[in-house]
Amino acid sequence: MSEWERIFMQNLTVPPHSQRRRNIPKESTAFQCVLKYVEGAFVKQRVTEGWSDIEYQLRLSLFDVAYRHFFGKTWKSSRKPLHSVPRQPARVVFNETVYFHTSLNHPSITAVVEVVAIAKKQDGISQDLSCGFGIIHLFNSKSEPTNLAAKDRGLKLYHGTPRALMHPLFQDPVEKNKYMTVMENSHLQYTLRPHLPLETIFHLFPENLLMSGLQKVPGLLSARGDTNDCFLKPRLMKSVTCYLDKLSIHLYPSLEEFEEELLDLLNSDRLLKANSTPDGTAVAVQERRLRVGVHNGLRFVQAPQVAVLVPEAEVVRRHSASFLGKQGSSSSASRAGQALVLRSRIHLTEMVRHPAFAIFFQLEYVFCASGGADGKALSAAPLSKAAYMHSVRWAAWSPFLGSGSSEVAVPLRGGTRHNPGHVLVYKTPPNSASSAKVRQFESGTVQFHVSTDSEEHLAASTDILSKDGEDSEKPPTPSPRSASSPRTMASSQGPGLSLSQLSASPQRRDEPALRRSAGSPRPAPRGMPRSERTVSAGEICTVPGPRAAVNPGRVPPFPRELGALLSPQEPSHGSGPGGITHLEADLSRGCAGPDAGASDQLRELPFTPVQAPIAAVGMQTGSSSTVHTRASLARLHASGFPEILDCNKEPVEIADPADPVNFNPQLEEADVLQSNEIILQFLAFSRVLQNGLEVTRPKTVFFTFQFYRFPPVTTPRLQLADTGSEKAARSAASPRVLVQMNKDGTLSSGSPGLQLKYMVDPAFLKPGEQRWFLCYLADHSLQIDIWDGDSLLLVGSAAVKLKHLLRQGRTAVRSHHELEVAATEYEQDAPVAGGDVLRHGAVRPVGVYVVVKGRLHLCLANVGHLCEERLQKPRSLPPSRSRVVPSQGSAGGFPGGSLFSVGAEAGRPVARARRLADVDGELAALLCSRRREGSAARQPGPREAPAVRRRKAERMALVRQREAQEEEEDGGGRKPRVAGGHEQRLQHSRDLQVIDAYRERIKAESISHMLRQAITATHTVYAVLGTAEFFEFALKNPYNIQHTVTIEIDHPELSVIVDTREWRHFKELTKTVTPVEEDMFHLHEDLRPRVYLRPKETIHIPFKYQTFSADPAVMTQQGPAGLSGGDDAATSSPWKSGAALTKHIKVSFHVSGGKPIAILQVKVETQPHVVDHTFRFYHPELTFLKKAIRLPPWHTLPGAPAGMPGGEPEMYVRCSDPNVICETKHMGPGEPQDVFLKVAGGPSPQIKKFFVAIYTDAWLAAPVQIWQFYLHSLQRVDVSCVAGQLTRLSLVLRGTQAVRKVQAYTSHPHELKVDPEGVFVLPPNGVQDLYIGVRPRKAGSRFIYLNLVDVEYHQLVSSWLVCVSCRQPLLSKAFEITLPAAGGKGSNKRITYTNPYPFRRLYFLHTNRPDLLQFKEDSFEIGGGEVYTIGLRFAPSQNTGEEEILIHINDHEDKNEETFCVKVIYQ
Description:
Layout: H1 3-10, H2 18-21, E1 29-40, H3 45-48, E2 52-64, E3 69-76, E4 91-102, E5 109-120, E6 126-137, E7 153-158, E8 182-194, E9 211-212, E10 239-250, H4 255-274, E11 282-295, E12 305-311, H5 312-319, H6 323-327, E13 340-341, E14 346-352, E15 358-370, E16 387-397, E17 407-411, H7 436-439, E18 445-451, E19 499-502, E20 580-583, H8 596-600, E21 614-615, H9 630-637, E22 654-655, H10 665-669, E23 675-687, E24 700-705, E25 713-714, E26 718-721, H11 726-730, E27 736-740, E28 754-760, H12 769-779, E29 781-788, E30 794-801, E31 812-827, H13 835-839, E32 847-865, E33 884-885, H14 916-919, H15 921-926, H16 929-938, H17 946-969, H18 974-1014, E34 1016-1023, E35 1029-1036, E36 1043-1049, E37 1054-1056, H19 1060-1070, E38 1081-1083, E39 1089-1093, E40 1098-1105, H20 1127-1130, H21 1136-1139, E41 1142-1150, E42 1156-1166, E43 1173-1180, E44 1184-1190, E45 1212-1215, E46 1221-1224, E47 1234-1240, E48 1247-1255, E49 1265-1282, E50 1287-1294, E51 1300-1306, E52 1312-1315, E53 1320-1322, E54 1327-1334, E55 1340-1350, E56 1355-1367, E57 1373-1379, E58 1387-1394, E59 1401-1407, ...
Parallel strand pairs: 21-44, 22-31, 33-35, 34-42, 43-49, 49-56, 57-64
Antiparallel strand pairs: 1-4, 1-8, 2-3, 2-5, 4-9, 5-6, 7-8, 10-13, 10-14, 10-18, 11-12, 11-15, 12-13, 15-16, 17-18, 19-20, 23-27, 23-28, 23-32, 24-25, 24-26, 24-29, 26-27, 29-30, 31-32, 35-40, 36-39, 36-41, 37-40, 38-39, 41-42, 44-47, 45-48, 46-47, 48-49, 50-54, 51-53, 51-55, 52-54, 55-56, ...
């Protein structure tokens, strides 16, 4: 027995349960388990009496609690004696470390530890006695590794043996089972932790195999130092590349006789199982395959390659040349044409010089049923007959233990022995009288030429062991994701790929099926379509069919007539309906070298994009502290703002915003005044100095915001008016009162300020929503965007906490706030972190900083009122209290009804009899004209109010009464009435015939519609953006036989929850107490879930509705374009905007044949959502916006849990626009998290709006915050200039269809000037130039916004984004001066300037700090060579420090001549 075979036979494992193997494999998790000691009274004295030499052993096994299934291989520790110390519990010390990894990350996957006593009697007989066992949970309820930390833990032990866990009475959770008895005062001390270094050897270490650190794994080097644990820091042995050429397979006694016998046995077995006579159909060979891979005794190092073999005779016929002469001595023993040959070369890059590494060969045949008499497959036969596969022979050869010859012949094996492919193999010839050496070749041989020289192609090499000049390659260390995945088989790594289809119908009853597994299934190679995946060795192979031939996980008995014949293997999943897809060898000789693919592929370097994140400013509200003088505040509050009165008509007391607010929900619920009148008063706005200079804008402002779920509000324009005297008006920082304006632009004579009211009455809210609203006030902030009413530029944003609106039992509350209005500006002058970053293609980051633009004076108030009693029900029906939707008719049989039931009457158990002409308009059109007119007059609409019906009936009665009177007055009208009666009878007879024919035509359809209504249940869902609505449907099987029910949903936003972990998560959130079943659903090929139902059984189907698309009706435009009034929108109900947004989703449950057994009609009513923060970005048109937004600490997010074990939770994001790339990455514990956005901008002036929902749970149940984003696409203008120098350029203005009076506004009026500066006329459909001059004051890159506004209608005509790139001018001279700070009077200084030109010139003076330096004269003119003294006035500074002030001397064209630098030191 070779070293490879010994290791292979010693490490055979039991596969996991078949239901686990059906799932797609996930990423494997590596564990390290240290078993230290067992302590306590685990020794049973009565059991161990009469025994001597008792030793103890630990045995560790993997166990699936859900399916009561042990899998893997039981690990046994070394035997240890018992150490007993007086007055201390008995202890057995082990101190052994076990390593393993598994991809079955389910809470039911556990590790079971058994304590075994091995005792011997006097006569030497030994016996194993179980002393107890314990259960270690590897994963928690979220399928994450159990967080056991690094400290030791005590595992409680149970009486008995772990074999009892397989009893049906032991259900999950096992620990709470009444049959489990805890062993008192006994425990196992252990440590369990993830072991990431094990991921580097996943390709050598099979899954679910438990190994000690002292055991050896082929391919690993011995451990360094004193420790013998090779898994602690595993080191890989160097790999070499092995080449196989001229491969051929010879079968005994010949290829023709071998295949003839095989086909006869298969055909006989087929007829025997079908119990039929020969029907002219035979089994034919369609393809011969060979799997070649490297196996280390434990697993395949990489997925085996698949090659297609062809008979040698076909090669001779195709190429008209003798293959025998090329084959040489390796084929001389066989007759010509009696071998299977491979015409390409095989590259094995994963070989290692170790005795346990072997090359594995597996010969497979693909068969199909053929109608030909010669046994050959017809071309059309595979389209309708089944194609299936058998393994025929296999072989394993250790190349570094051979005789040294480069020509190798390895005997093939067959029969029932174990093999790495874990499949049944065709029988071997019966034993003959030949010698053992001859007998081993009777099963056939595989012959090939082997070499390890990468430069050699077909030349023979000498002994492999003599090769010392191997390339010093690094050992392969596949990543954890790709360690268990098969490699993509390119031409450089073995046979190339060409797709070949073998058609196969679904499995017939006469074809057996087999399931065997060598480990976990492997996914398809990355980059390869699923339909082209090759079933690799060790993968679960199944054949779909109407019934299972054998039990999963159990080897079927061998057919008596067929001997040891292999069952057919399943083709790759998803290869089409019944098709087998395989990969064929590339027969071209022009393949690249083994390293060609690696050299063409660029290697990715570790790189983090340098992108400065934007802080979510709206999360932290602005300052509410008072910065103005008491005199200015007195003038402000004396301006006559509307007084706020409570329900008793008394003034509301003003509270200090700095006082803490304690939120008590019970106090709010016990309040008698349940109705809340929220009042927002916009009082005043104060400008602040910008760069030390006074600003004159904005002169008018308006606000945009969204409160709770009410529609977004855009207020009217408000004028900034002075508060009092001229002295106060001269102060730029003094507050300006906001005054409303009339339509003609004059100021309103009413009260100053703007007051908005929101009436939050429980009569308008859904049941239970009052608590949501109170939590919104307690946790959220209101973000307000402030706009310039003239230029339509965004001034900035302010945020105020709404917790001051909580009344807490008081009649009314009121608070005044002074909020900072901050704007985010960008500069491209942030430093780059290192030079290597730029070399790898990073873009210079955009610097982000916040500038305070002003202060907003705001008053918030909440006045309590008694709840109004309303007679009518609200438009939004209350959601169902129960999350379980009963099926229609579950309580009884069919209640009856009408074939023509419409509207609300369709659900009644009793229907009122009505005329057919009254309920069917199509039938009424076929009847007589008088009857049709009368019916049309009397027929009420399906939704007419009772008052309307009553009015129509009264009018019709008056008409009939008037007709009767006219007939009585007409004396000669008797005969016509008789004639009319006869005609009327004929018409009635004709109408009855029409009605009878009409009823017969629609009877079947009407009955079918009525029966569908009888099994239809209706459920209403109130959907909010990003929030998952969970409910369950009670599905009952009405039949007396079992059925497999298919669930069909006609809308993608409603889905069935097939993951048990997600189902359990939503049940915990909604407090639903229905049972949860493991693996209840199985997905069909079209991804439709199916569920098995027993007769008369009722189960609960979990559904989840979740939408991430914002409806346009909900996304009301908010921005500078719309300046509508805000009163109506503010006082409306928060549910009116979404009440009409209703859609219907149909869910049908049908059995085989498409027969429905239940129908669920889900009515979805879309509701508005809360916006927590708004971001606005201005970006060049038709470009991508890439931004990183820094998330605040998770504990400051409204709605986040107060405490969460294990540190900060991971954040998840979803976007409402599928065209926006939005993601977040977890950077580790304690590290901040950023949200990355990539948005494609549209043409100017398009505004793109989308929402981003932020979650803290992996199942995305409910967002903790919803952010709103606006992307304004602007025309881009690039300007490159010098600081202090004027740069001129022009923009093209295109007129609209009408004449407009327009004016240009800029966001930086001190640095960008426009010409014409005032209002000018833009002609219709004309072209006009707008001249701009840019004079930046400091170097760097920045953005300046330019708007062209219609001054009459206040509409945005056009907008530009001016991207300024400014460089520093050359300095001519430098000066230094020291000045006093904090209250000084300033200083006057002089410097001289000499005209370097020989003629007279005009010069202009400019500075980068006009707030600190003023010139005596802004311009001067001197002659050639003359000297001029420049007078300087330095203003005092309030702060100490140093300032560098630049003095720019420009010529008559405003180009920079010289620049002086003055360094001012303020002390």
